C-alpha cells in the first residue's frame, strides 16, 4: 500500500515548542557548556529517544492495538486511483508520517479516503486537507 521507513526518518522533522523550568534549563545549559551535548536541541532529542526506547514495547503494543502503520506512509495518485476504480475507500492510520502526494486532487482524496488518524505528522496540500477535513480524526 505504502512505503515504510524507519520510525525516526532522518531529514523530515517537525518543530515543537516546550516550556521548561529555569532549573531544568540551567542544568541542560551546564551539560552543553561541559560538552556532553552539542546544544539544547541535541540534549532534548537524546532525552526523548531514551524515553521512547525505554517504552518501546508499550508503544508497539498500543500501535498494534490501534492498528497503526508504523513509519512513513505515502499515498500517491496511482494508489488512490486504484481504490477509486474498485469503488473502495481506505482508512489512513499511521504512527509517524503520512503524506498525500501533491498531484492528488481534492475530489480523488474525498472519494477514496474514509478517515485519517495520524499520531505524528500529516502532510497534504491545503486543498486536500480541506476536502477531507471532516474525516481527519
TrEMBL record:
Species whose genome carries this gene: Sphingomonas japonica
Domain of life: Bacteria
Pfam families attached to this UniProt entry: RHH_8
Protein name, UniProt field: Arc/MetJ-type ribon-helix-helix transcriptional regulator
Amino acid at each position: 500500500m505504502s512505503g515504510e521507513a524507519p520510525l525516526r526518518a532522518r531529514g523530515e522533522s517537525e518543530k515543537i515548542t516546550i516550556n521548561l523550568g529555569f532549573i531544568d534549563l540551567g542544568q541542560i545549559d551546564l551539560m552543553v557548556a561541559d560538552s556532553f551535548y552539542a546544544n539544547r536541541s541535541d540534549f532534548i532529542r537524546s532525552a526523548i529517544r531514551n524515553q521512547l526506547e525505554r517504552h518501546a514495547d508499550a508503544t508497539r503494543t498500543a500501535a498494534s492495538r490501534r492498528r497503526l502503520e508504523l513509519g512513513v506512509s505515502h499515498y500517491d495518485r496511482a494508489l488512490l486511483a486504484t481504490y477509486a476504480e474498485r469503488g473502495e475507500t481506505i482508512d489512513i492510520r499511521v504512527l509517524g508520517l503520512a503524506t498525500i502526494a501533491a498531484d492528488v486532487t481534492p475530489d480523488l482524496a474525498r472519494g477514496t479516503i474514509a478517515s485519517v488518524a495520524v499520531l505524528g505528522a500529516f502532510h497534504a496540500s491545503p486543498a486536500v486537507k480541506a476536502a477531507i477535513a471532516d474525516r481527519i480524526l
